[in-house]
Structure formats: structure tokens, C-alpha cells
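Repro case for the chain-ordering regression, as requested:
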Amino acid sequence: MPDIYAKHNFPDAEGFRQMGAEEKILAVAEGFVPPPGIPENEALKLVWDRIGNIPAKKAVSLSRFLPYAAAIILLIGAYISFELLSSKTIIARNAQQTEIVFPDGSKASLNAGSKIKYTKRGFKNNRYLKLTGEAFFDVQKGGRFIIDTPAGEVEVLGTELNVYSRGNDFRVSCISGKVKVSANGSQQIILPGETAKLGPAGLEKYTEKNISHTLMWRNGEFYFEDQPLVSIFGEMERQFDVAIQWKGLENRYFTGSFSNRSLEEALEIVCIPMELKYEIQKRNKVIIIANPK
Amino acid sequence: MPELGKNEFVTVFNEFYKPVKNFIYYKTGDIELADDIAQDVFVKVWEKRGDIRVETIRPLLFTIAGNLCKNRFEHQQVVFEFAGRRREDDFPDSPEFIYELNEFSQKLQKAIAALNEKNRVVFLMNRIDGYTYNKIAENLGLSVKAVEKRMKNALSDLKQKIEYKL
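-- result from build under test --
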């Protein structure tokens, strides 16, 4: 421990004892010095060393434009199909998110790698659609509104909700109103802040600590709490339209969030804390290496 | 739009390495980790220098540092080991006063460690790095109002803990 906590204008004993608690706190804290750690010039040297070892720029930057091109082509496609067909399929390809307004005024945001199918004619009377992937719904008040997914069915009257259905992973979160979820013969009614999740024993209901995490994907942020690494890389594949290869990560879990702004940053956010290494290769291929030496 | 050349990089490093490192230390209480992450931050800035404008580098440095912290650091109990600055004074203090100050400083360090992380960072940036509220707001991408509020919260929290324990 240091002997004296003071700067040049620090009071003497008498002065100190006359100070109020707040003044004492401010004065003593001002004299605090963090432990020195590595001297600055050495740190700079270390930084230069590491900069010297950075491999040549990776070839991923070209793919930045692909999502935009895909989005434009898709928009044109969606428009044509909208005009021509009554049965409509809206797809959000990888690295893309789409907004939909249904004939009854209900809205949906479709996350990357997701699909919605519905019939335009008579939708107002028979509100039924099929979803694979993930979407957020803002349902107008009215009759039954049914969201059918491969894993289960969701029925609402008028509400906001998020539906996630990929493979065996089926989750429905209620933001406002009341939602009825059924899957595999089990049923749950969920209220705002609650999520129904399909588990081995059917649908289970739980209260989200922070329901806004569920909706972060709409702002391009992806939050995971104790989720299998594999499903996080799955989300990255959809968000960045890349193929990610991994081995031996099946039983590892991750808590954190990444943004869809930069693939490298997203990979770093996951790989650094999990002690993995990644390599970005040509043709949007990413290889994850466990136990890097 | 001025690009970040080698000279500018060194200037930025000299100005900000220490405050960025301190910022990480305030969050984690681990000086080795702070050195590590602070270096990561600057390596990253160099890698991204093509996309970076010199004017916006200040908030960027702290954002990157904050993000890297989030992923490298598990929120355990934070412990600080601040040293005190030597008094530049001709009159030596009495052993009793030195003891009293030590006592107070120990309590304060513990109270600081127990602060909410956001309030703690603002408080220490102001006290130790000598940043004004304006600069802290700029560093952390906050409004000056928010910085004031965090500072106020930190102070009242510290005061409560210290008075209670005294």
C-alpha cells in the first residue's frame, strides 16, 4: 500500500478532517493511480509487432455488395409476384430482412433466411399464413390470425409477437396481447413478456428476462443467452450469407450479441471469448478452428 | 477526409492508450487484461484505418474497447489496487493522519468496486483521467446529461457506503 494519497493541493490532517464525506471522496479518488501494467512505449512496440503479422486483406469485402444486389433482385421478384399471383410467397434471403404488410393491415418483419406464404384473396376473412424461419408480427385486431409453422401453430387475435421456427427449434414470444401456441399436441397461452418454447416434453412457458432481446434482430443485432454455438453460427450464415464450417463445437454455449454490420467483427465477438480461431476464405466460406495452438 | 497514417496512428496511440487502458481497468479491475485489450483495440483500429476518420476516432476507441471487454471478461467481483500519488509538500504528515488516509482510501476502493459499472467508469474517468463531463460524453457516446447523472449516482452511492461504514 502506498503511504500517502494526495496531490499537491491535498489538505493536511486538519483540513481533511473538516471536509464533508463527498469532498473527501472526490479528493482521495483524484489521487488514485491505477497499477502501471506494461509501459506505454513497450505496448506500442507490441502493437506494431502484431500489425506486422496481420495477414493480407481477406477477400470478403466484395461480398458486401451481394446482399444489396440480392435485395434489389428480390424486390423486383416480389413485386412481380405480388402483381401476378394471389398466393404469395415472401422470402428474406440470407443477409436480408424484409417487411410485409398483409391485406388486413397486419405487418410482419421477416428475418434473413425465412419465408412466409399466404393467400391474398380472402385474407381479411381467413387470416392464415405459413412461416418457416423467424418473423415479428404486428397483428391488427380482428378474427383469428393463424401462423402455421412446420413445428407448431400459433393463434392470435390482435397482438405483437415474435415467432422463431427453424428445424426443431420453435419459440414464440408475446410482446403484447395474448397468443395461443400449439405444437406436438401440447398447448400454451402466453402473455406479454412470456415465451413458449418447444422442448422434449412439449411446449414450455417461461418469462423472458428482457423481452427486447428477442426483437433485437430487427435492428440488425442478434442476442443469444446461453445458446448452442452451433445455432449462433447458423444465424451468422443467414445474416452474412456465408457457409461456416465447424467441428466439435456441439456442446458449447455462448452468451452475447453480434451485429450484422461486419462479419469479421461478429466472428471475433464469438471466437475470441470461446477461444476459437476463424479463417475467412474465398466464396464466402468461413472455417472455425477449435483449440487453436 | 484525413486518413490515418503511421504518424497519426502514433499520435492517437500516445494520446489514448492510457485512457483506453484505464477505461478497461475500471470495468474489469484487471490491469493485465486491460493492457491486452487496449492493444487489441489499437491493432483493430490499424486494420480498419481505411474506414476510420480521424475525427471520430475517440468514441470509436472506447466502443471497441467496451465490446472486447464484454466478450473477454466475465463479471466476477471486481477488485481494485489503486496507488496513491505522493504528496508534494514540505511538511510531512503525522503517522496518525497517514493511517487515517489509508483507512479511508481502502474503504473508498471497496466502495468503488461495488459501484454499478457504468457509474464507476464515469466517476473514475473524471477523477483519475481528469476528463471533463463533455469529454466523457464524447468518449462514451453519451449525452452530457447522462454523464452528469452517472456521476451523481456514483457519488451518492459512495457517500452512502462510506458514511454507513464509518
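Ordering looks correct now. The first helix of chain B runs from residue 6 to 28.
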